[in-house]
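Recap from last week: sequence in, structure out.
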Amino acid sequence: MVSALAHVGPHMRRMRPEAVGGLSVVKVDTLQAATKVTGFGEPISSGPYGNFEQVGRTSWAVTFGGDLAVAVSARVSVVPQIRVYRVARDYEERRTGLPRYIFRFGGGVRADF
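Predicted structure tokens:
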């Protein structure tokens, strides 16, 4: 996932809450059970231990979430983060149970210059 996000929030001294939103590019990569076709045109199911083929595509997601920058010095902050991605899924991905919403928690260190 690669995101282009905008941060909006009040400028406070110690703690700075921010709303985050934007767009993300999502690389979807899954394995699907392969079905063989005989010379007579009839498909043969490979079963749970059969062959799998790798299927990949690129999709878009709408991203929103929040940051809370906590100052540890005049120019350095520790930033816990939460992101929610709403991924555009096609029919096959929805059928296999891949979620439309992805929740991510993280953190970082921010240096202001």
